[in-house]
Amino acid sequence: MKSALPVLTVIAAILLIWIVAVVPMNIHLTADQAQRDGLAVTPETPVERQAYSGLGLTFRNPGLIAQTFVQERPRLPSPHQVGAELWKTVVDTRITSKRSLVYHGWVTLSATLLGFAIGTGLGILLAVGIVYNRAMDMSVMPWAIASQTIPILALAPMIIVMLGAIGIQGLFPKAIISAYLSFFPVVVGMVKGLRSPDMMQLDLLRTYYASPSQGFWKLRLPASVPYLFASLKIGISASLVGAIVAELPTGARAGFGARMLVGDQYGQPLVTWAALFAAAITAAALVGFFGLVERLTLRRMGMQTA
Amino acid sequence: MTGVAIISAMAVWGAGWFVNVRLSKTVAADTRLVRFLVPIIFGLTILIIWELLVRLLGISAVILPPPTVIAERFASEGPRLWADFEQTVIKGAMTGYICGGLAAFAVALLADRSPFLTRGILPVGGFMAALPIVGTAPIFVKWLGSDWQSKAAVVGVMVFFPILVNTVAGLRDTTSMQRDLMRTYGAGYWSTLFKLRLPAAMPFIFNGLKIATTLALIGAIVAEFFGSPTVGMGFRISTSVGQLALDMVWAEIVVAAIAGSAFYGLIAWIEGRMTFWHPSQRK
Question: Of B172, B55, B168, B28, which is closest to residue B111 (Cα–Cα)?
Answer without folding.
Answer: B168
